[in-house]
Amino acid sequence: MFSIGDFAQLGLVSVRMLRHYDALGLLQPARVDPASGYRFYQASQLSRLSGSLRPAWPSSPPSRGTTRARTSDPSSSPCTASCSSGSTGPG
Question: How far apart are CA 54 and CA 11, in angstroms?
């Protein structure tokens, strides 16, 4: 048996998503602790998760905080005509 956190890591989903699947009846835990309500999953349930429930990513999940590389070449700036006049602003 896997705790919900371990199962989420193995299945590449969040704990929140597993709780959502449980609420919808799509993937219910193998066991729920009656005292704490903590969910436990079996290894056999991973195939269900990885098969039809996990979101389909392209080749890899998108990374957070992706930014474009900045360049110091002024000719690559989108502001070549109006910015090169030497004007510092209106008026």
Answer: 8
